[in-house]
Design a protein that fits this description.
Elements lengths: L1 E4 L9 H5 L4 E3 L5 E3 L9 H10 L5 E4 L2
Antiparallel strand pairs: 1-4, 2-3
The protein binds iron/sulfur cluster.
């Protein structure tokens, strides 16, 4: 599983970071940072919630 962000769509709201703080964060410039593109199994539910919680659907999971 790999996590991707569409940078053009992302509004840097930070909502997703609340669901998966071990994987997603905002940097000092307010840009979204993916801390781990291939999160471990115990974080997958959090990541899926973050994907679902993004208001502009900027996050995407692929199974590669
Ligand atoms: S919730 Fe969506 S728009 Fe907001 S920071 Fe995360 S990816 Fe970007």
């Amino acid at each position: 599983m790999k996590l991707h962000v569409d940078r053009e769509a992302c509004l840097a709201t930070g909502l997703c970071t609340a669901f998966a703080p071990e994987v997603l964060d905002l940097d000092e410039q307010g840009e979204l940072v993916i801390l781990d593109r291939t999160p471990p199994p115990h974080l997958l539910d959090d990541v899926r919630q973050a994907v679902r919680g993004c208001p502009v659907r900027a996050l995407r999971i692929t199974e590669d």
